[in-house]
Design goal:
The protein is an alpha/beta fold. Helices cover about 35% and strands about 20% of the residues. The protein is built from 18 helices and 21 strands. Helix 13 runs parallel beside helix 14 and helix 14 packs across helix 15.
Length: about 525
């Protein structure tokens, strides 16, 4: 975020004018709004035209911001006491950078902006392999019901868990911060993301080996999550009690601070193992993928959590919560799934213990939460078939989502649009987990198709795997496994199963979510 380690002497007063370059980009947009929120005058620029300004909607509440589109007039330099430049322009010593230097105007970076202002406290950082986005959204829904306003980045179609977004978001106008702080598991990345936010509280939802590429080790990835634990020494952690990796990580790091645990009481659905830091594998009787009742030879074993969700109904959308003082609270959800009960419990515990909100407010906030876009999201119906998309794009996510959907529907078809970030090994695991839970599986990405063909060659999934008659061309772009045409081919293959009494068609993966509007159009035309 900065070009050197020297703190600048920034002399500002109420008349100081800040010129911000790149207001239609992520950092420029956030920085302009931070400065305006703190009462300073901002003039901003972007080389695009107004209609092409990606995050223009985030500026609608700032009518006094003077914005120059399509160029940088001389008056921009004449009016600015400081200029905020994108790091790329500074590091490349661009022509614009050279011009600012010629005018002898001090240049500021995102790190300088963070140094100038402190976040709105408390700062709650939420991390984990799965469930971060939903837990953040659910906790925010509770907070809004209470009348408090969390800082919001308001950048359309961005989760806000990367680069400088959390740090800058935390400096915007608001009463508190609820920040999604997820990374791809690179050592030092979570510390770099969360440290400038000055967190007070951390929530760890789970740690599973689903966001790893083929060269990464699970325990190294777990240690990255430990970077948030290290930042919160002497502070507060809310953690999933049913994950042996979290328990082992706390022990390994010898964490000192307040640890509040939450978990579920329900029937295990499978048995698995997870690597432990002792070198052995912990045995887990799973409630959902990677979490449940566990034990390891090193002595790490399951104990009852501080907050226990129990009396879970068959639809997995209502439960009772036992508190540390044995008080029982009842909660109902508008979304289904044991994974959502985990997410809800984490949000409830934070609302109770950290924010000190009352039961009625929390109950309504949880009850009125309708889910996150792309998570078990119904996009249409054809005859008696429900069509759904879900963002699940790793083995644990696929397993958890399909298990829940199978609990809700009799005959389930999964159209796989993923390309695993863990490489072909991850794609094989996704297919394997889909075959465990779905009645029929249709591969709609190149990687999924190759894995399905290999499975059929080995006489696996013969009665479940349905290959599209023709799979259009596509290429792997990150976790975007399938192209638009491949997603459409997957949908039409699923709809062709007229004699299978299908109740639900769910298209899983990032591509399914990205091309949701295309799918809706196809559903409408099919009718």
């Amino acid at each position: 975020m900065t070009t050197n380690d020297t703190k600048k002497n920034i002399d500002i007063n109420e008349d100081t004018v800040f010129g911000v370059i790149g207001v239609c980009g992520i950092n420029g947009n956030l920085i302009s709004r931070i400065l305006m929120d703190h009462g300073y005058k901002v003039i901003a620029n972007d080389m695009v035209n107004p209609e092409d300004c990606r995050f223009k909607s985030a500026l609608k509440d700032y009518p006094d911001m003077e914005i120059y589109y399509g160029g940088v007039p001389e008056s921009f330099f004449e009016k600015s006491d400081y200029i905020v430049l994108p790091m790329a322009l500074i590091e490349s010593k661009s022509m614009l950078y050279q011009k600012v230097k010629k005018y002898n105007i001090p240049i500021l970076t995102p790190e300088d902006i963070c140094d100038m202002f402190m976040p709105a406290h408390p700062v709650i950082c939420i991390t984990g392999t799965n469930g971060k986005t939903t837990t953040v959204a659910m906790l925010k829904n509770i907070v809004y019901k209470s009348g408090l306003k969390p800082c919001e980045h308001n950048l359309d179609n961005l989760q806000g868990n990367a680069a400088d977004i959390p740090a800058l978001q935390s400096r915007l106008k608001g009463d508190l911060n609820i920040l999604e702080t997820g990374t791809f598991g690179v050592t030092g990345s979570l510390k770099k993301l969360a440290e400038p936010c000055h967190p007070d509280v951390g929530i760890i939802t789970n740690i599973t080996p689903d966001h790893l590429d083929k060269n990464e080790r699970f325990l190294d990835y777990a240690m990255v999550k430990g970077e948030l634990i290290e930042l919160l020494r002497g502070k507060k952690l809310i953690v999933n009690n049913d994950d042996p990796t979290i328990k082992a990580l706390l022990d390994k790091l010898d964490y000192v601070g307040e640890v509040i645990t939450y978990g579920l009481e329900t029937n295990p659905v499978s048995k698995s193992t997870k690597q432990c830091f002792c070198g052995n594998n912990a045995v887990v009787d799973e409630y959902i993928a990677g979490v449940g009742v566990y034990s390891c030879k090193c002595g790490i074993e399951y104990q009852k959590p501080d907050f226990l969700a129990f009396n879970i109904n068959d639809e997995h959308n209502a439960f009772d919560l036992k508190t540390p003082d044995n008080k029982i609270m009842h909660f109902e959800l508008s979304v289904n799934g044991l994974h959502n009960i985990y997410n809800a419990t984490a949000a409830i515990v934070c609302a109770l213990k950290i924010l000190q909100l009352d039961y009625d407010t929390i109950y309504q906030g949880v009850k009125e939460f309708n889910g996150v876009d792309g998570r078990m999201q119904t996009i249409g119906k054809i005859a008696d078939k429900t069509i759904m998309v879900d963002y699940a794009h790793n083995p644990a996510g696929i397993s958890t989502v399909l298990a829940e959907l199978k609990n809700m529907y009799d005959v389930v078809v999964d159209v796989i649009t993923t390309s695993s970030e863990s490489g072909i090994k991850g794609d094989h695991e996704i297919l394997e987990n889909a075959l465990k839970h779905a009645d029929y599986v249709i591969p709609a990405s190149n990687n999924a198709y190759d894995c399905a063909k290999e499975a059929l060659d080995n006489k696996i999934g013969i009665n479940q795997i349905i290959l599209p008659e023709y799979l259009p061309q596509g290429e792997k772009i990150g976790t975007l496994g399938a192209s638009k045409d491949q997603v459409k081919a997957g949908l039409y293959t699923a709809l062709s199963l007229a004699n299978k009494n299908v109740d639900l068609i769910v298209l899983t993966g990032e591509a399914a979510y990205k091309f949701e509007e295309t799918l809706k159009d196809e559903i409408h035309s099919f009718k």
